[in-house]
Task: inverse folding
């Protein structure tokens, strides 16, 4: 069973690398979002420094959702999902492994590049570290919550927008604690540890719960 | 090991597609399902593969201790090929070999290269599936039957897009599978070369 999941993991990475697009489109989208905020906010560096973590978090949230609607839809369309359902491997684990591969190829590059864009948003070194750490801890929750939305909309032709509408409200807790961990110490006296711990808890809860919800949606929604 | 289907009823979109259908298959037996479009041939195969819920009745594996669900013993080759266009034929097959390996499956599993050779596709093993023709894609999907041994083959229009030589190869492999005690349920409009197969005709 382990080798079935390992094979799935490498297949997902192979598809992401081969068909390209996903990773680089996400990064460019992230860059564009982070770049247009200063145009809207204006040339006030203090203001930009204060809302920088929030901008990075919103940009990450939207970039993570980009392409997530295809997570199961591509497998549904070419028949792979049907075959995976006939596997002895539990669908929950298949969902978890697909999410892990998706996080690795789309969310992790955003986390890695975030400090660079943080510089453009007038973030200081400690703030950069906090933003990056909070994104690293929070993006698994975004991917897994998004996977539930992707599973629910798997058989809809244009499910992307519907998925975003379903998923975005559910990501509000992650956003609140992510931004408050990232922006801690700057203006408000919130300590870093408390929101960061809650953020980690949200991610762990999503890892534990979301695969069951997504697998159930895939089992009964595939008809 | 026997495949027993008892009095099943299946509804799709509120419409009753199969009702009161029963049959049993013993090792080495094949069942050819025929009927007009929309009679429920594909539905029957999808139900056997565990992809559609039953309203009534049961599908059971008899003659085995603690039998797994039918779906985990069955290879399903449907209309969609289940192969990723950006991966090569060999990569697709080795993935399915790992994913579909069954604890219950007896018999030999072929390495992907040999399974492709059995369908005369050895030359295409390193090509992305995207560049293959429709018939070649179909043959890659059918080669999946050989990389992970499973006793029940569920074939939905297996001859679609296949040329005469490939049809002959498939029927040779089907005979070999039945000879080893396997079972086949095939939905088809064209004649399959399985003289001893039982027939099931579905009506609308």
Result:
């Amino acid at each position: 069973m382990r080798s079935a999941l390992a094979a799935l993991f490498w297949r997902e990475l192979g598809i992401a690398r081969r068909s390209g697009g996903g990773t680089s489109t996400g990064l460019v989208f992230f860059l564009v979002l982070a770049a247009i905020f200063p145009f809207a906010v204006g040339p006030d560096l203090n203001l930009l420094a204060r809302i920088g973590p929030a901008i990075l978090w919103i940009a990450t949230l939207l970039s993570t959702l980009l392409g997530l609607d295809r997570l199961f839809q591509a497998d549904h369309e070419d028949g792979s999902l049907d075959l995976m359902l006939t596997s002895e491997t539990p669908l929950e684990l298949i969902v978890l492994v697909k999410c892990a591969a998706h996080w690795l190829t789309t969310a992790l590059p955003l986390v890695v590049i975030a400090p660079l864009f943080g510089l453009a948003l007038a973030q200081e070194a400690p703030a950069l570290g906090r933003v990056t750490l909070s994104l690293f801890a929070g993006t698994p929750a975004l991917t897994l919550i998004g996977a539930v939305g992707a599973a629910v909309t798997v058989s809809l032709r244009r499910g992307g927008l519907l998925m975003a509408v379903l998923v975005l409200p559910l990501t509000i807790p992650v956003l609140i604690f992510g931004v408050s961990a990232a922006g801690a110490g700057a203006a408000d006296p919130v300590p870093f540890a408390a929101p960061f711990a809650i953020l980690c808890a949200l991610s762990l809860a999503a890892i534990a719960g979301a695969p069951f919800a997504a697998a159930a949606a895939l089992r009964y929604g595939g008809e | 090991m026997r495949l027993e289907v008892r009095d099943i009823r299946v509804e799709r979109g509120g419409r009753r597609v199969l009702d009161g259908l029963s049959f049993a298959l013993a090792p080495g037996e094949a069942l050819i399902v025929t009927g007009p479009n929309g009679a429920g041939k594909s539905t029957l195969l999808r139900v056997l593969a565990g992809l559609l819920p039953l309203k009534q009745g049961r599908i059971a594996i008899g003659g085995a201790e603690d039998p797994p669900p039918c779906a985990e013993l069955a290879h399903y080759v449907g209309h969609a090929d289940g192969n990723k266009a950006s991966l090569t034929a060999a990569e697709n097959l080795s993935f399915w070999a790992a994913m579909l390996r069954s604890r219950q499956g007896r018999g030999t599993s072929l390495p992907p290269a040999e399974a492709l050779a059995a369908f005369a596709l050895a030359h295409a093993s390193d090509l992305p599936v995207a560049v293959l023709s429709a018939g070649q894609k179909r043959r890659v999907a059918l080669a999946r039957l050989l990389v992970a041994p499973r006793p029940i083959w569920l074939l939905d229009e297996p001859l679609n897009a296949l040329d005469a030589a490939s049809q002959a190869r498939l029927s040779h492999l089907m005979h070999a599978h039945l000879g080893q005690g396997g079972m086949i349920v095939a939905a088809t409009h064209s004649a399959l070369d399985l003289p001893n197969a039982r027939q099931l005709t579905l009506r609308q």
